[in-house]
Amino acid sequence: MATLDLEMNSLLKDITIDPANDAVVIDGVSKIFKKSRPLLSRWHKEAVEAKQKREVRAVDNVNLTVKRREIVGILGANGSGKSTLIRMLSTLLIPDEGTVRIFGYDVIKDEAVVQKLINRVSVEASFFKKLSPMENLLYAARLYNMSGAEARKNIREILTRLGIKPDRIDAPLEDMSRGMQQKVAIARAFLTSPILLLLDEPTTGLDPRSKIDVQTFVNELRDVHDATILITTHDMDEAEALCDRVAIIDKGRIVAMGETQALKRVVADIRGQVEPVSMNEVFMHYTAAHLITEEQVKRYGSWEKAFEALEAQREEEE
Ligand SMILES: Nc1ncnc2c1ncn2[C@@H]1O[C@H](COP(=O)(O)OP(=O)(O)OP(=O)(O)O)[C@@H](O)[C@H]1O
């Protein structure tokens, strides 16, 4: 397979990277948001108490190390803290507790260096919608001091590799589907050849073929360009296909960490099954409000029945 010439930015030329450092070291990191109570509770008789803001530990004492060239998945339900964690790694949010180091550089003290080492793709990517993908990416390339001719060639190659048809490359972005626009956002992150790529749900909303295009390209970026990739996803198949290791996050805490095959065997053992379970079952196991014990499996007749019963109980309690 032909490789893409992505090594065209000069962003990293003055940065020293010690090969002994891991790509990401997250040490005891928490992020606490204050949320107003719902309006109704303000009319409650305990007005003083109701005025207090509720604290949400969106990320709660997370420890995680990502080695160079690893692809690590962060899996979690809606609101579990994935995006908050990624935002702290990309210097968009400041941790309230703990430290984050990217290739040895601290996200607070060395913010400017960290910003050159990483690139983040998220669904809320901002673009000039009247301009074409080519124009948008040329604009980004200029911000990164890339030469026009070189950038133009690379942009066309990356967009084509991601499955954008040649006639769409120069047409306004606003005429493209949301999924296609998402691919352009991904292309923009690849353009700078970051050594750490943070992908926040990159394939949500993409059709199966587009998902595979993106996954293939992510793998290529690691294999050919030595990138380290941290990816958040709801898609268990994607996690299994792409990630060397996954961390499952629930209510801001990492509740399981490891290779997908190993986690599947662990959960099968807990459930007394010989065959490994699916990643969906692993996810359900670790994110259920109560970890399901062998005794509960026996009491309710099957793991699924125990899960349903305990989830119903959890909803009632809430
Ligand atoms: N700026 C904010 N102010 C207050 N609360 C916030 C803020 N950002 C996130 N939260 C809360 O923190 C928790 C974690 O949110 P986060 O967006 O990190 O979850 P997520 O796992 O990325 O969810 P999703 O899969 O839906 O994107 C949620 O309870 C959310 O409501």
UniProtKB/TrEMBL annotation:
GO terms for molecular function: ATP binding; ATP hydrolysis activity. Keywords: ATP-binding, Nucleotide-binding, Transport. InterPro entries: AAA+_ATPase, ABC_transporter-like_ATP-bd, ABC_transporter_ATP-binding, P-loop_NTPase. It holds the Pfam family ABC_tran. This is ABC transporter domain-containing protein. Residues 43-276 form the ABC transporter domain. The keyword Flavoprotein does not apply.
